[in-house]
């Protein structure tokens, strides 16, 4: 009897860690999900290096860099929120930091929206009236939109999740335990890492020319 | 005691954040220098270092259990294996030019004649 009960008790103690492990495994599959797009990008850039360089120069490097800084900052703040969540006395700080994280996510999406609007007016959407004639340039812009939109969808999910944690923490709910806040933060950091890789691939191809 | 550890956490976060922003600006600056193949190498190496900082300090891989580290390492290894295998395929395949390009773009690729803007 006790031989059966003991593992069950141990499992209950490990519950938050199990959630974190589950998130890590999920993020592992996400790495492979984005990996396919990186293969497509590598093939395109290897075959049309000039086309990709020309196309990349049409991205808005200022807004792209600002957005990178926004996401890096949001990651730092959510890491701070996780540290605060370990101390029940810091509940107010945890909530505040989580709200700030979600807000920076919204700022990122707003800036991305401004970029998309510019790109639409400059005919950079890969449609019939696509502006560039350089071979490979249109493929770059297809990948640009697929990758950034997919990233934005992930970020949107993160914003909703982090905002829910912020609200519940601020309201004194008991379910946002430190382990769960950490699990949510892991997802947020992953979305940040995807952008860290996208930034040089999309915005920084041969700016010197 | 607890307050001190929180302060310690905050210090690590702030330092890591400053390093990340510095690396981002280095990456930005490197793109404006003509480094040839070094441009893409610099971009990717800096992205790798930034990712490592986020994984190690923000995602607390440095304090994670062996199981979590194995999961993270397996994900990275699988990604690298699939990248390498896909690369072998594409690197050894003959390029069929302009298969993806729209008809408007194809002439400039094949004949070197600038493509003309069609009526929209």
Question: What key attributes describe this structure?
Answer:
heterodimer; A: 209 residues; mainly alpha; Four Helix Bundle (Hemerythrin (Met), subunit A); 7 helices; 81% helix; elongated; B: 120 residues; 4 helices
User: For the largest interface in this structure, which chains are involved and how many residues does each contribute?
Assistant: A-B, 63 and 62 residues
Q: Please tell me how large the radius of gyration of chain A is.
A: 21 Å
- What's the mean pLDDT score of chain B? 83
- Low-confidence segments of chain B, given as residue ranges, are 109-113
- Number of strand segments of chain B: 0
Number of domains of chain B: 2
List the domain count of chain A as a whole number: 1
- Determine the N-to-C terminus distance of chain B: 70 Å
Sheet having the most strands of chain A: none
Topology order of chain B in helix (H) and strand (E) letters: HHHH
């Amino acid at each position: 009897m006790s031989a059966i009960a003991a593992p069950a008790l141990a499992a209950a103690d490990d519950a938050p860690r199990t959630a974190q492990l589950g998130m890590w495994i999920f993020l592992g599959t996400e790495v492979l999900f984005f990996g396919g797009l990186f293969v497509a990008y590598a093939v395109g850039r290897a075959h049309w290096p000039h086309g990709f360089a020309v196309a990349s120069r049409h991205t808005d490097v200022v807004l792209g860099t600002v957005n990178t800084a926004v996401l890096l900052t949001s990651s730092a703040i959510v890491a701070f929120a996780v540290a605060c969540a370990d101390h029940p006395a810091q509940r107010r700080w945890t909530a505040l930091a989580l709200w700030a994280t979600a807000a920076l996510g919204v700022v990122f999406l707003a800036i991305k929206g401004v970029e998309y609007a510019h790109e639409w007016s400059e005919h950079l959407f890969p449609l019939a009236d696509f502006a560039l004639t350089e071979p490979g340039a249109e493929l770059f812009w297809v990948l640009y939109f697929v990758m950034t939109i997919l990233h934005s969808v992930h970020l949107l999910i993160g914003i909703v999740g982090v905002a829910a944690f912020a609200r519940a923490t601020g309201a004194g709910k008991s379910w946002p335990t430190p382990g769960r806040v950490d699990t949510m933060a892991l997802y947020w950091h992953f979305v940040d890492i995807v952008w860290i890789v996208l930034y040089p691939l999309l915005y920084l191809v041969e700016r010197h020319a | 005691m607890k307050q001190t550890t929180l302060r310690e956490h905050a210090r690590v976060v702030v330092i890591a954040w400053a390093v990340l922003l510095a690396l981002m600006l280095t990456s930005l600056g490197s793109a404006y220098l003509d480094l040839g193949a070094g441009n893409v190498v610099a971009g990717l190496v800096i992205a790798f270092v930034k990712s490592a900082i986020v994984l190690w300090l923000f995602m607390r891989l440095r304090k994670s259990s062996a199981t979590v580290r194995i999961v993270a390492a397996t994900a990275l290894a699988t990604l690298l294996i699939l990248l390498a295998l896909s690369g072998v395929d594409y690197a050894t395949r003959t390029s069929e030019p302009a298969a993806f390009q729209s008809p408007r773009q194809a002439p400039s690729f094949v004949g070197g004649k600038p493509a003309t803007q069609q009526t929209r």
